[in-house]
Amino acid sequence: MYIAGREALIIGLIGIVAASLIGSLGNIHFDGVLDMHIGARTPVWFFIAEGFIDWFSFAVLLFIAGWICSKSAFRIIDVFGTQAFCRLPTLISVAVSLLPANKRVLDGLMPMVQNPNQLPALPPADTAIFAATMIIVIVILVWMVALMYRAYAVSCNLKGAKAVISFIICLIIAEVISKTGIFVMIKFMTQN
Predict the structure, then answer these.
(1) What's the CA gap between 190 and 22, in Å, rounded?
(2) Less packed terminus of the chain by CB within 10 Å, N or C?
(3) How far is residue 146's CA from residue 152's CA, in Å, rounded to a whole number?
């Protein structure tokens, strides 16, 4: 409600880069508009590119949807700026995901992929930290989506079903576009 335009864009882009850099420490990828996974080690630029692809694909679609659905004028900088700003909660998600207990639990669970009947012996404290981390990540995700919706509705002067339906459609399409863009980046990296 109170921050938009260039200020929101600058803060948001700094946040996207910071979350990407922090994520690179633990190979945590933002590999979709709403996705965060531990993955392969890649160059630092790849982590940053993922964040920008996620933000940009969604912001472009929301701008187009706002242009189609809104009866009033709005600024593109507000849509792009607020959507970048709304990604700031990923800083919390990526930071808690780096806790050493989470890595130990994931390393302990990996043998189950090859042998599902073999239950891992995981320390209870690590398991509790892992469970708390997953709850925090889910809450942060819900908060981020709520912020994104509110930013879209306010920036484009939309309300009601038109705002909700257009937001959901854009979110689904942006998820596909961002995944495709990241896949293309991976193919490009592996060919060179």
Answers:
(1) 24
(2) C
(3) 10
Q: What is the pLDDT of residues 141-187, one digit of tens each?
A: 999 999 999 999 999 999 999 999 999 999 999 999 999 999 998 88
pLDDT given at position 109: 77
Q: What's the chain's length in residues?
A: 192
Backbone angles phi, psi at 119, to 5 degrees: -85, 130
Q: Could you count the other beta carbons within 10 Å of the beta carbon of residue 38?
A: 13
HSE, side-chain direction, 13 A CA sphere, residue 186: 12
Q: Which two tokens stand for residue 117?
A: 């009947």
48 to each of 24, 51, 52, 67, 141, how far by Cα in Å?
9, 5, 6, 28, 19
